[in-house]
Design goal:
By secondary structure, the protein is mainly α. Helices cover 61% and strands 4% of the residues. Helix 1 runs antiparallel to helix 4 and helix 9 (200-215) packs parallel to helix 18 (392-403).
């Protein structure tokens, strides 16, 4: 906890100072503390994304950024805003912040933390954005903007990767500044995302802040649209948000197309980043084949597509079984899966129906625009991979629309406290979760409370690996685990080695250094035998 407090003391002023630079040069929003910090996050991430094409996001980049931010914090006298805010809201802000920090100090348990988040951040901080890195490990081709932001602060400020705690604190500041108390009810669910640098949390938080701005009749279309594209770049399944802001700006604010400029630049940067690392404009979709030499092997992409479809059905059916479903079975089997996901799917469909009825009864153009945007996103998700985590954000949006003018602060605060206590118990006693909620698979990866987390956030260490070489690529393979979360780069997880072997290929250096990127090539019979020996030595 102490380490997280120190991280917040360092990053909150620095980011607000960077936001002040942005505001004084471009404007676009009022001088509230939360929006200024968000502007700092936005501008830092965009600059770092450009830099990452050329250099690693190392400690030098971090120190320079911190110095500029802290100097701006004092130069623009942003500290006066901070002091005024804390002085007026000290008890509420500090007590909830302490709760957030405590929950954020638990062990990470989201599997993507080990298989995707940490490896991605290691590559960005040690090498930068690497051309064709998806040939080494398909998941590394994502490189979310959020992990670019986390990578830059992963040396001095936030070595335990708790940047989502920072994001939730910023959300709390926004709630208090705007008296938007309905948002506090989202915190207990968001607690489950703050032990890892999960892109879900910033995507949900920023989308709800943007939504609140719109429902408060904000006219800062340019800033909101750029921020909505930024959210899309963090998590592309949030495509409803830029659609919503685009339609809101044209149909309700009725302004010209100048508001698109900043957002268009962010979108171009996002697409170029994907082409650079993955070979296609949108990860992981094989859309617009540019014929690039570093695009992944088509067989591996097909395997990924099949796996996405199987995950749609919670791996309860094989790909062959799914392809044999009739149209009715395709829907019925998805709705009535065994376990918790069936309930989530049914609630999702019910939510879409409910908001359509609500829009009809309200006769509000704004709600109709929101419904159409969510519907388009939902159709796209259902067509590609209808995993519940891809439409989870819709529940937050619909709850906000229904209750943002209904629930009072007096009612919200006790509900918030009760739900927070429940979630802390949920995290502290994982054995109860495994016993009474067996369909919640992540429960088996929870580790409960540890006294040491009062000082340092709880984290795992393995650091067991072997080094091998195939062709011109010398690589490391983790031992005794599935994911290479703390294996020195370049690391390949055993499951990806197996997929390469099955496809008869293996990644190779494009040039002489890691920064020059990766391609794939077919392997010889001798190399196949060598890879089989590597996998034989692996004992999960």
């Amino acid at each position: 906890m102490l380490y997280i407090v120190l991280m917040l003391i360092l990053l909150l002023p620095a980011l607000s100072g960077l936001g002040a630079i942005f505001k004084n040069n471009f404007g676009g929003f009022n001088s509230e503390t939360a929006l200024q910090i968000i502007a700092g996050i936005f501008v830092t991430t965009i600059i770092w994304t450009v830099l990452a094409f050329f250099i690693p996001l190392n400690s030098t980049v971090e120190l320079v950024t911190l110095l500029i931010g802290l100097c701006a914090f004092f130069y623009f006298k942003v500290y006066l805003q901070f002091w005024k805010f804390i002085d007026e809201n000290s008890i509420l802000f500090l007590s909830i912040s302490l709760l957030i920090i405590f929950v954020g100090s638990y062990y990470p348990f989201i599997l993507d933390h080990f298989g995707y988040y940490v490896p991605t951040i290691k590559w960005l901080s040690e090498v930068g954005l690497v051309q064709g890195i998806s040939n080494l490990d398909l998941l590394l081709g994502q490189n979310s903007f959020w992990h670019i932001f986390q990578a830059g602060f992963s040396h001095l400020s936030d070595p335990f990767l708790r940047v989502n705690v920072l994001m939730l604190i910023v959300y709390l500041i926004y709630i208090i500044e705007r008296n938007a108390w309905i948002h506090l009810l989202f915190f207990p669910i968001l607690y489950l995302f703050i032990q890892s640098p999960s892109s879900d949390l910033p995507a949900i938080v920023l989308s709800l802040i943007i939504l609140n701005e719109v429902f408060s009749s904000s006219k800062n279309a340019g800033f909101l649209f750029a921020l909505s594209i930024f959210v899309f770049a963090i998590k592309p399944t949030m495509i409803w948000l830029p659609l919503f802001i685009f339609l809101y700006s044209l149909l309700i604010l009725k302004i010209n197309y100048k508001f698109l400029f900043a957002g268009t630049f962010v979108l171009f940067l996002f697409i170029f980043k994907n082409i650079w690392t993955f070979g296609f404009p949108i990860f992981p979709v094989q859309f617009i084949d540019l014929g690039l030499s570093w695009k992944p092997n088509l067989e591996l992409l097909q395997n990924s597509s099949e796996m996405a479809i199987m995950k749609t059905y919670d791996m309860q059916y094989s790909y062959e079984q799914i392809t044999q479903f009739s149209k009715l079975e395709y829907i019925k089997n998805w709705l009535f899966l065994d376990g918790l996901k069936s309930i989530i799917h049914l609630l999702f469909i019910l939510s879409l129906v409910t908001i359509s009825v609500f829009a009809f009864l309200k006769k509000s153009k704004l709600i109709w625009i929101l419904f159409i945007s969510i519907l388009i996103k939902s159709i796209l998700v259902l067509l590609f991979s209808a995993q519940y985590r891809f439409f989870f954000d819709v529940f937050f949006v619909i709850f906000f629309v229904f209750f943002y003018q209904v629930l009072s602060k007096k009612l919200i605060l006790p509900i918030f406290v009760a739900l927070s206590i429940f979630i802390i118990g949920f995290l502290s006693f994982p054995q109860l979760v495994r016993t009474y909620l067996p369909s919640f698979k992540l429960g088996s990866f929870m580790s409960g409370f540890s006294k040491t987390q009062l000082i340092k956030p709880s984290s795992f260490k393995l650091n067991k690996y072997k080094t091998h070489q195939i062709g011109n690529l010398k690589f490391n393979v983790v031992e005794g685990y599935f994911f290479s979360f703390d294996t020195p780069i370049p690391a390949i997880s055993p499951q990806f080695i197996q997929e390469d072997l099955d496809s008869g290929i293996f990644p190779q250096l494009k040039g002489k250094t890691l920064k020059e990127g990766f391609i794939w090539r077919e392997i010889s019979k001798e190399e196949k035998e060598k890879i089989q020996i590597i996998l034989k030595d692996y004992t999960p």
